[in-house]
């Protein structure tokens, strides 16, 4: 197992939610004020000095005094008692309206964002129309039909405000669904409801809290307005709005009359908003990340399973991965499709490591994602065969694929910082596939997760189970990702540039760890990388990809020492070697990988190839050979080995 010394540096422990909340003095005081008002509402009948509706005409229009701290109104009712009773009414009103809007809006918005397609379009259009309606007008309409009542008004307000949650929920889930940690959960085989509940919802809590506090403030004000207009609380209800309404007629006689209710409304609205900001800021922010989408929910044309899938296999152990004639395409501007992975074949035996190498844009990562059945949207697998441990994956339903992902295939991602859910402890993230696929109890999964964390070199695994991803260094977080990927002892591990995002001092340790774990678990590995040095260190076989095609494949040592395709030779020449003379500049490959819409059936490397001849421009250049194969018309004519040094 690799040396972990340089990885044991831990990110400083971040204070917990409560500590972060308490640190924000103003929002924390505001939250205490809101909590105090909640207590006032609950215990209103007990703490109210007088009956809020008891009239005493002899003591009407009093200002603040020893007996009536906030004075009395036009019929001698105690203002303090009415404000206290009004607190209860306002809280109940807020609760009614906000709970209706959340119960309706959040599920509709989240389902629209997650499912997409027609359901999303229908919800969005309907919501756009409802969103445009002024809240007061809608409540007017509902009260006109159902009769004046605070509950009716709040139901109307709840319906109106549900549109805000639909819009927010849809937008947030749509964005969160593209996050790598959500992709990672899907790769682990977590079902849709589990992804939404455990990985998306905690990460969109922050904007939901902000939205809720803004709306709570608005509800208080609108309730006061409606009561003021006589459309919510009845004349006898001691609502704050009704108190304001009644005070306007007697303002000249007692100028203090509007103050108790007005002050209560103002303070509660400000406190709710400040407290909401504080709570939202105390919720862990997730790091920004690049977007990768999946097309699992879209209706697609049927995928053709390659006829070659049923051909007899060569002798030797049954492969853990067999990919035949895999073709992936994206919609083109002209209405057709552009092929981005073009007839790829891969084969990995148990305990074997295959390197999938090439520059950016070669299609290697897309090939790995296609193996998992997670082609980025709006792409699709056009045809081919993908067998994992003998099971054909092409044509399977999402549910069947989710049973296989995480159990038979694990995946390690490029950037552990985005592959781990920032709002979930690492212990729970490692336990998740164990509970989902192996049916372990919580206690069993916890014990196994601790074992796995120890196995991948996380110091004090029991103590770190409750830590969050941000408390781990990059290398240590990648160890957690590896532990999670191997939790169910998969037969195949896909590692997509697993060291690219890591510190150079940690890269070798993570690669050593993968080798050690392969010895222990015996899984086959597909290592996607642009680094031929990593291929040389790790792999038994290598497939070099260029412009969506495999251009050379074979035994790793043989290909790297005796490349037969000019692109492989050029990649090797541009790779750093340990014994290179000081000051020697690395060779570069001129030009760039052509974009898919420029690909032809002729050699796609032709424009960058220093060995190109006229024949290279003719169509139909095939990959010739079996275990050692090359896609070049000049195979056998060129001596490419002498120009390269193996990294
Ligand atoms: S086919 Fe021609 S252009 Fe293509 S790699 Fe071979 S020699 Fe170069």
TrEMBL record:
Lineage: Bacteria, Bacillati, Actinomycetota, Actinomycetes, Propionibacteriales
Stored InterPro entries: AAA+_ATPase (IPR003593), ABC_Ni/Peptide_Import (IPR050388), ABC_transporter-like_ATP-bd (IPR003439), ABC_transporter-like_CS (IPR017871), MetI-like (IPR000515), MetI-like_sf (IPR035906), Oligopep_ABC_C (IPR013563), OppC_N (IPR025966)
SMART domains to which the protein is assigned, alphabetical: AAA
Stated family: Belongs to the ABC transporter superfamily.
One Gene Ontology MF term: ATP binding
Main location, first listed in the record: membrane
Protein name: Peptide/nickel transport system permease protein
CDD domains from the UniProt entry: ABC_NikE_OppD_transporters (cd03257), TM_PBP2 (cd06261)
Listed Pfam families: ABC_tran, BPD_transp_1, oligo_HPY, OppC_N
A cellular-component GO term for this protein: plasma membrane
Membrane topology listed for this record: Multi-pass membrane protein; Peripheral membrane protein
PROSITE patterns: ABC_TM1 (PS50928), ABC_TRANSPORTER_1 (PS00211), ABC_TRANSPORTER_2 (PS50893)
Keywords assigned by UniProt, alphabetized: ATP-binding, Cell membrane, Membrane, Nucleotide-binding, Transmembrane, Transmembrane helix, Transport
Top-rank taxon, per record: Bacteria
Keyword Membrane attached: yes
Ranges of residues in domain ABC transporter: 321-572
Subcellular location: Cell membrane; Membrane
PANTHER family registered for this protein in UniProt: DIPEPTIDE TRANSPORT ATP-BINDING PROTEIN DPPD, OLIGOPEPTIDE TRANSPORT ATP-BINDING PROTEIN APPD
